[in-house]
């Protein structure tokens, strides 16, 4: 049985993500959890003629049952940005939500893969890892910050400038983290097309701040949901393909804990960080191999340097939140 749980399933990302996951023939049970409306979303999706069972779980009391026997837990629970906000501004509300969900995962499905979508990802992934460490159930191979939307945007935006670059089959490596300057697309490694320095500069900026385009266009009604659902389903499906079907050689860029992960020593040493997004080969146990950072152009080296200094603060903030026992404030 492969049970996948979506926490925050009634939200802007949660609903379309659950719809996409309902199409997977690798999932036998899709459990939808939210503090509101998950029962209705589950009833609706349960009529779709694919083999998986769908169950809805509403409210804290229903969370343990939702998580029991989970193979994979995907977390898009929490508030999105409004214009003028940074992802870090969401920490106040989302840190507590993610911490509490991680605690329940530690108690009810300690071996599950945990895929963190809730922002700020640079800090929420350390929060999940610290909670699992405290509960003595941490396996670095099993926790992922979902940065796939940056990869998806990179392919799409490059295609807009270079139509001969095929966006669905050509994957671009994106390293660092998931917010503004911490997002570093490695455009120098693209072999299919070449760029002028101006094109590199404007593409890099657009990829780093792609999220802002959507926040601005939605004008107070939230941030990316549909493209995120697509990216989240892509990452979940790739992980399932590797971990359930055993397909080898599948690689995605993702934000993971470096120490303790296979192959990660080099990146840990060269960044000096405990968490970093880079290409990761997925396998039966989650992370099979953290790939070395590719060769970087001079500009990319400087962007990575900037990303590292910002990530340091984001990571420390997430770790301290768990280890200092701070109580989250409920309002933005
Ligand atoms: N990683 C990425 O690339 C990426 C991309 C887009 C959005 N996001 C982030 O994803 C999060 C969700 O965005 P959205 O647009 O779906 O927001 P949304 O407000 O539409 O949905 C969030 C859902 O979470 C639920 N929720 C709140 N507290 C909860 C809890 N304690 N347990 C379970 N569910 C809870 C809400 O009821 C709601 O249904 C935001 O933090 C956003 O910034 C990340
Ligand atoms: O921009 C946001 O706040 C949401 C998300 O992180 C994104 O990149 O679209």
UniProtKB/TrEMBL annotation:
Entry annotated with the keyword Plastid: no
Protein's recorded name: Malate dehydrogenase
Active site: 178
Recorded GO MF terms: L-malate dehydrogenase (NAD+) activity
Annotated NAD(+) binding sites: 8-14, 34, 94, 117-119, 228
EC number of this enzyme: 1.1.1.37
Binding-site residues for substrate, renumbered to this chain: 81, 87, 119, 153
Catalytic activity: (S)-malate + NAD(+) = oxaloacetate + NADH + H(+)
Record PANTHER family: MALATE AND LACTATE DEHYDROGENASE, MALATE DEHYDROGENASE, MITOCHONDRIAL
Domain Lactate/malate dehydrogenase C-terminal: 147-321
Enzyme type, top EC level: oxidoreductase
Signal sequence coordinates: none
Keyword Oxidoreductase: yes
Similarity-based family: Belongs to the LDH/MDH superfamily. MDH type 1 family.
Species: Dissophora globulifera
Subunit and partners: Homodimer.
Database matches in Pfam families: Ldh_1_C, Ldh_1_N
Keywords: NAD, Oxidoreductase, Tricarboxylic acid cycle
InterPro entries for this protein: L-lactate/malate_DH, Lactate/malate_DH_C, Lactate/malate_DH_N, Lactate_DH/Glyco_Ohase_4_C, Malate_DH_AS, Malate_DH_type1, NAD(P)-bd_dom_sf
GO cellular component: cytoplasm
């Amino acid at each position: 049985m492969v049970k996948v749980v979506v926490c925050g399933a009634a939200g802007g990302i949660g609903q379309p993500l659950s719809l996409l996951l309902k199409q997977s023939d690798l999932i036998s049970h899709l459990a939808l959890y939210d503090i509101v409306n998950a029962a209705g979303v589950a009833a609706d999706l349960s009529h779709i003629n694919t083999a998986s069972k769908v169950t809805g779980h509403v409210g804290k009391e229903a969370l343990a049952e939702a998580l029991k026997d989970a193979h994979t837990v995907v977390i898009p629970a929490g508030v999105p940005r409004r214009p003028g906000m940074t992802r870090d501004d969401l920490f106040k509300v989302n840190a507590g939500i993610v911490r509490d969900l991680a605690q329940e995962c530690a108690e009810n499905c300690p071996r599950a893969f945990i895929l963190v979508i809730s922002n700020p990802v640079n800090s929420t992934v350390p929060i999940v890892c610290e909670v699992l460490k405290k509960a003595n159930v941490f396996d670095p191979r099993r926790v992922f910050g979902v940065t796939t939307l940056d990869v998806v945007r990179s392919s799409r935006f490059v295609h807009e400038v270079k139509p001969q670059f095929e966006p669905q089959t050509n994957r671009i490596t994106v390293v660092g983290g998931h917010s503004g300057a911490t997002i570093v697309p490695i455009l120098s490694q693209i072999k299919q097309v070449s760029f002028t320095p101006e094109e590199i500069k404007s593409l890099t900026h657009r990829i780093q701040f792609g999220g802002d385009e959507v926040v601005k266009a939605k004008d107070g009604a939230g941030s990316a949901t549909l493209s995120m659902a697509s990216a989240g389903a892509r990452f979940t499906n790739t992980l399932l393909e590797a971990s359930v079907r055993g397909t080898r050689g599948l690689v995605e860029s993702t934000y993971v804990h470096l120490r303790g992960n296979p192959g990660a020593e080099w990146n840990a040493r060269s960044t000096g960080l405990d968490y970093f997004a880079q290409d990761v080969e997925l396998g039966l146990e989650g992370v099979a191999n953290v790939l070395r950072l590719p060769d970087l152009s001079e500009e990319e080296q400087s962007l990575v340097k900037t990303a590292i200094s910002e990530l340091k603060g984001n990571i420390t903030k997430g770790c301290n939140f768990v280890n200092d026992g701070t109580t989250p404030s409920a309002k933005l």
